[in-house]
Specification:
Order of helices and strands: EHEEHEEHEEHEHEHEHEEHEE
Shape: globular
Helix content: 25-40%
Radius of gyration: 21 Å
C-alpha cells in the first residue's frame, strides 16, 4: 500500500504538528489522515496519529526513521513508525469458551483484522478441531494445580520471537508477573463486566442477584494489577428482571465478542496509545 502510520506522543508544546508535517513533506510523503489530541495545552500531554502515503515506502523507511530520530526525539517526544502493509502477528490464548476465539478467527478469515495468527494456545483441547479448520496451528498447554510456572514457561517459549501481541480470548488463567514480563509484547484481555464490577467466578449469576439493568464487557491491556490495566473498549446491553442468568450470559457473550474484536482491530491498526493507566483511541 506504500502507507505508513506514525504515532507521536509526549509533552505538548508549540510546533509539533508543523514539525511532523514538514518531516513527512521533505520525505516525499502525502498525509492521508491525521488525528491529534492534547489533554492540556499548558504543560499537558500531546498525542498524534498520522497515516501518510510515500511511494516506494520500503526503500525510504530507514531514512524516514532516521529523520524522526533527529527531528522529533530531541523534542522529548516518543514516536513509532509502522508500514501498514505488514500485518501484526497475533497469538490467541483460550480455554473452553469458544465465542471470542471463533469470532476473531472468523473476522480474520474475512479480512476484517489486519493481522496474521501464527498460533492458538489453549489449556484445553475442545477447540482444537475448530481452530485447525481455519488453517491455524493449535497448541495444547495444560495448566493445572496452583503452580502454573511450567505452563507459562512453555507458552513463553512458543511465543518468543513469533508474535507482536497476544489476545486472551476468555483464557481463564491468572497470569503471573513473571509471565507478563517475559512475554515482552502487549497482552489484551476481555472481561465479562464493567471493571471492577463482578470480578471473579460467576459474574452473570452475581449480576442476576443484584438485579442489574445493564450488562457489559471491557477489553483492556493486561498489567500486573489484575483486571486494572488500561481500558481499550467497553459496551453494554440492556436487560430486565425477566432475563435469567443464562439469558444474561448469552447476551454478555455477544457483547464480549464485539468489544474484543474492536479492541483487537484498533490495536492492530495502531489506533491505541497507552498513557499511564488509560488509553487514547483514535
Amino acid at each position: 500500500m506504500d502507507q505508513a502510520c506514525l504515532i507521536v506522543h509526549g509533552p505538548d508544546q508549540p510546533g509539533i504538528v508543523s514539525a511532523v508535517s514538514a518531516l513527512i513533506t521533505r520525505n516525499e510523503g502525502n498525509i492521508v489522515s491525521l488525528d491529534q489530541y492534547s489533554d492540556d495545552a499548558n504543560g499537558g500531554a500531546f498525542f498524534q496519529r498520522v497515516v501518510f502515503h510515500r511511494p516506494n515506502l520500503t526503500a525510504a523507511f530507514d531514512d524516514i526513521s532516521a529523520d524522526l530520530t533527529e527531528t522529533i526525539t530531541p523534542l522529548g517526544l516518543e514516536w513509532n513508525l509502522t508500514d501498514r502493509s505488514v500485518p501484526k502477528r497475533m497469538a490467541i490464548l483460550a480455554s473452553t469458551s469458544d465465542h471470542c476465539l471463533l469470532e476473531l478467527l472468523w473476522r480474520h478469515r474475512r479480512g476484517e483484522l489486519n493481522v496474521t495468527i501464527p498460533m492458538v494456545i489453549s489449556n484445553h483441547t475442545n477447540t482444537a478441531d475448530d481452530v485447525r479448520s481455519f488453517g491455524i496451528p493449535f497448541f495444547h498447554v495444560p495448566s493445572q494445580g496452583p503452580d502454573k510456572s511450567a505452563a507459562e514457561a512453555e507458552i513463553v517459549r512458543l511465543l518468543a520471537g513469533n508474535v507482536d501481541f497476544v489476545v486472551l480470548a476468555r483464557y481463564m488463567q491468572i497470569l503471573s508477573d513473571d509471565f507478563i514480563n517475559d512475554v515482552g509484547v502487549p497482552v489484551i484481555n476481555i472481561h465479562h463486566s464493567f471493571l471492577p464490577a463482578f470480578i471473579g467466578a460467576g459474574p452473570y449469576k452475581k449480576a442476576k442477584e443484584r438485579g442489574v439493568k445493564l450488562i457489559g464487557a471491557t477489553s483492556h491491556y493486561v498489567t500486573k494489577d489484575l483486571d486494572e490495566g488500561p481500558i481499550i473498549e467497553q459496551d453494554v446491553a440492556r436487560v430486565t428482571h425477566a432475563h435469567s442468568a443464562g439469558d444474561l450470559q448469552a447476551r454478555g457473550a455477544y457483547v464480549e465478542r464485539a468489544v474484543l474484536s474492536r479492541a483487537v482491530e484498533w490495536h492492530a491498526d495502531d489506533r491505541v496509545i497507552r498513557h499511564g493507566n488509560h488509553t487514547i483511541v483514535f
